[in-house]
Amino acid sequence: MKFSAYESNRNVVSVWAYPLFLVLILLLIHNWTGALTWPVLDDDHQRDFNTALGTTLLSGFFWLTIRNVHKNAASTLIAALVSLEKLSQFNHHRGVLSRQFAKHLMWSTSVGVIMPVAYLLSEGLVTRIDEPEVLVIALTSIPFWLLLTLFILQVFSNTHYLQKLASTEHSDSIKELNSLREIFNMALSNTLIAVSGFALTPIFWINKPVPFFDIVILTVYAGLISAYLFLPMIIVAKRMRTVSNIMMTEHESEITQLIRQQANSGVTSTLSKKIESIETNKETLRRILSKSQKLRLLMCMMPLPTSWFVFLFVEYFYYG
Questions:
Q1: What is d(CA 197, CA 156) in angstroms, rounded to the nearest whole number?
Q2: Distance (Å, rounded) from C-alpha 166 to C-alpha 78?
Q3: pLDDT > 70? residue 319
Q4: Closest CA to 236 of 289, 171, 305
């Protein structure tokens, strides 16, 4: 899972092949130990079934999304450096991101080891640790928590790093605004991918009542994660607004000068066209987000409630 600056078309298969291989291996292991056997006989088996299936699918999903985050970050970094005319510094910035990734990997590994222990204690499963399926579920949940934590850390840090690069290196407001728009698109794509993954969470409650405590915990957790994922976009959008305001002030000053020239020189046609063009640019600058970006923002809020609606609908009609 190293940070890759560029993946050629010959390597595109590996982007999804390794996560898919992980999912298949974990499914086979869980089936072999009995966690995924069918039919489900009792509540304990149902909980094991749901946990094994949910953590397996989400482990593959978050590995896939981490690789996608790296590709998006690399392409956005290249675009930013091209606009800065500093593409020669690409290897330096890639090295910084790679070291950052290594640090996050260590932190995520710690979380990956701690959380399964916490799960066993909180669910009272320590007494069943001698059962093969419970032990294997605990061990195979390590990659789930590792990849989830790593994804969250990478999404925020990559966006923050690129935003700082665009804001500190650019001397041209137009170039900075264009770079910020690219970075915002990257952050928006990553957030949309993330919330799509969280839409798989109802799997953990298949054919089981959803306790009120679980609903509260899930709501709080989803809220915190959403806030964390949206924070990079908010930071970038605020900087976009600041740069846009600077540019509009410059445009207003330019319009004032053109109006004075127009009054003094008597030449109206050419100057009028320039003024009209600048006014059009000002209207564009007032719209920080495009219609497609606003639509994708709305889509970010849809997957989780939609998945729970579908889940409850299926539960009601299928399980009665």
A1: 17
A2: 12
A3: no
A4: 289
Residue 170 CB partners (closer than 8 Å, separation 6+): 83, 84, 176, 179
User: pLDDT at residue 11 above 60?
Assistant: no
Torsion angles phi and psi, residue 98, rounded to 5: -65, -40
Structure tokens at 155: 């999404």
Q: Give 202-252 pLDDT, tens digit per residue.
A: 888 888 777 665 677 677 777 777 777 787 788 888 888 888 888 888 888
Are residues 84 and 170 in contact, defined by beta-carbon separation less than 8 angstroms? Answer: yes
What's the longest Cα–Cα distance across the chain? 93
Nearest to 299 by CA among 208, 188, 153: 188
Tokens describing residue 193: 């991918």
Which two structure tokens, joined as six digits, stand for 171?
Answer: 């001397």
Higher pLDDT, 265 or 66: 66
Give the pLDDT score at 26. 93
What length is written for the chain? 320
Residue scoring higher pLDDT (1 or 259): 259
Q: What is the pTM of this model?
A: 0.79
CB proximity list for 42: less than 8 A, separation 6 or greater: none
Query: What's the mean pLDDT when you consider all of the chain?
Result: 81
Residues 6+ apart with CB under 8 A from 215: none
Q: Give CA torsion, residues 190, 193, 196, 201, to 10 deg.
A: -80
At 311 the pLDDT is 82
Give the tokens for residue 49: 């079934």
d(CA 161, CA 3): 14
> At which residue do the structure tokens 């590792």 appear?
146
> Which segments of the chain does DSSP mark as H helices, in order?
12-33, 43-84, 90-122, 132-169, 173-198, 212-265, 269-286, 291-300, 303-318
